[in-house]
Specification:
It contains six helices and five strands. The chain is α/β, with parallel strands linked by helices. Strand 1, helix 1 and strand 2 form a beta-alpha-beta unit. The relative contact order is 0.14.
């Protein structure tokens, strides 16, 4: 793409913290496509393929995920559809369009032992459905020989949305007590 062309960027999960933050920092020479979850159902192959094909993106930012770790155990079919099967469809469409794919994953693909940060090639060993489904999504993307990158995050926080920092500020501002885990380290 030449410097004077406008990049077509599709953000899946645009209403989440990462997707919202990316929209706020988009370069001017970008046409953004930010379909809501009511416009594209990541659990439905046809809906997802249609959303990608409708915008014919140069770049796909996949920030979408089933992130409720505990709920993934009891809603494993939904977690698998969004975290594992949708990335497979997304990478297939990225290859079709020659689009660059940036996929947000998680440190839950590891077993929690060792000292963070984990090296990119560190052995994975997820301990729960959430981690297993995110790892399956990573593997689908990385095995596709696509122009893709997988970014693993740990705790996500921003100026908006539900996150640990916002919860702490809210509780402390009200003078309330906070009860939090004290055996986790993150960045």
């Amino acid at each position: 793409m030449s410097r004077d062309q406008v990049a077509r960027v599709l953000i899946l999960g645009a209403s989440g913290q990462v997707g919202h933050a990316l929209q706020q920092s988009t370069p001017p020479a970008t046409t953004l496509f930010t379909p809501s979850s009511s416009e594209v159902d990541l659990r439905t192959t046809d809906s997802l393929r249609a959303a990608i094909r409708d915008c014919a993106p140069d770049v796909i930012l996949n920030c979408a995920a089933f992130t409720r770790v505990d709920d993934a155990q009891s809603h494993s079919d939904t977690a698998r559809a969004i975290n594992a099967e949708a990335p497979q469809i997304i990478v297939e469409e990225a290859v079709r369009f020659g689009a660059r794919l940036i996929h947000i994953s998680t440190d839950y693909v590891f077993d929690g032992t060792g000292s963070p940060p984990n090296a990119p090639g560190a052995p994975t060993a997820p301990l729960n459905v959430y981690g297993s489904t995110k790892l399956a999504g990573e593997n689908a993307i990385l095995s596709a020989n696509a122009n893709a990158v997988v970014l693993r995050t740990s705790w996500v926080h921003s100026g908006s949305g539900a996150n640990f920092v916002a919860t702490a500020v809210r509780a402390l501002t009200k003078g309330g007590a906070m009860h939090v885990v004290d055996d986790q380290v993150s960045t």
